[in-house]
């Protein structure tokens, strides 16, 4: 409804009523105008009606929704199912063009505007979350692993002689496969045990760079968010090393946006040394469906180079999901979620500590990990096997405790020709088996209370079964010796 239509409406309905409706409409439009002017996440979240009004207005700017459109090309935004069309708010053309995921589409002004605004709003949120020096970012419709591969492939043109990526070990398959998929050989640097924490061996990273030759190294691939007892890499020291040897530095910040500590590490790394790009997941940080990531950095030209490496157009779904979410939450709402997450981390630590003490275990001391916690499972060590430890994991899963990870000792896993000893523990020989739990964004007090209650029951059962198993094992051993 434009002013002319409102004026015509006054001939049909009382002018005072129409003016009231017009003023209400202007309230929605004022919010949209501020978004277009500032390109920032609104401090206060929008109502769903404002968000839907905005998305419908954008959709009307795409050619597939023109009333008189006659499309004779192979890609005209045709959709067979009206349900699918509604699911996407009739924004069917996706984002980007064949040469650049950030490019504007001539026949999809609305979708292009959606893409530009999403990137601008997300950049604002990254800055609010702690990386104030971030110069540019874009949402890519791939999860973290493939987004890291895209960064590595972009660096290929800058460093054609490089064959290796130096990587402080983290036992997460997609990180490793991201490097192999891009055609590079990961050089795994083992972590060092400091107390209970597994920390970056910066001296070993430097020795590898010197041994391989700086020109043979594509980049250093570091990590912030991770499962305890591993803690975020020493980003500042690695960034300084990368600046010293003129080697790019790519940071896997998968679920680090929700942690002010992880974001501060990236900001400080860029300040004292070199951070070329950092990659984070949309679903883990913003509670949207899986399938998107944010590639960000401190050099706008390099981030644009990465976006131009993406082949073809792309799905707009991840951009649409995160924009709807951030407009609905507002900057204030997202900051509240982050504050609540910190509170839940303290609560989870307290509850796990009480549970651990009741079973003769302890929460591992990992103060440098701001999201994940680990509890020892010494009492489940069997006579030469991990059966009781893995059995606890099965019990938790069947009792609908998701996300908790049970880590046995001595597991081996081969990926891309490299054998990881002690796989899942980020170390060849971590001293104790343990259980992981994380206080990630969106976790509630009820989640923690119910998890600890079920874990308590499962531990009692697992400990009793383990005791019986150990007695049986010792009895069999004794009979063998007597023979």
UniProtKB/TrEMBL annotation:
Similarity field: Belongs to the SepSecS family.
Organism: Gadus morhua
Residues the record lists as binding substrate: 97-98, 105, 313
Protein name listed in UniProt: O-phosphoseryl-tRNA(Sec) selenium transferase
Cofactor: pyridoxal 5'-phosphate
Phosphoprotein is among the record's keywords: no
Function: Converts O-phosphoseryl-tRNA(Sec) to selenocysteinyl-tRNA(Sec) required for selenoprotein biosynthesis.
Location (main, coarse): cytoplasm
Single GO BP term: conversion of seryl-tRNAsec to selenocys-tRNAsec
Modified residues (N6-(pyridoxal phosphate)lysine): 284
Keyword terms of this UniProt record: Cytoplasm, Protein biosynthesis, Pyridoxal phosphate, RNA-binding, Selenium, Transferase, tRNA-binding
Binding site for tRNA: 271, 399
Pathway(s) it belongs to: Aminoacyl-tRNA biosynthesis; selenocysteinyl-tRNA(Sec) biosynthesis; selenocysteinyl-tRNA(Sec) from L-seryl-tRNA(Sec) (archaeal/eukaryal route): step 2/2
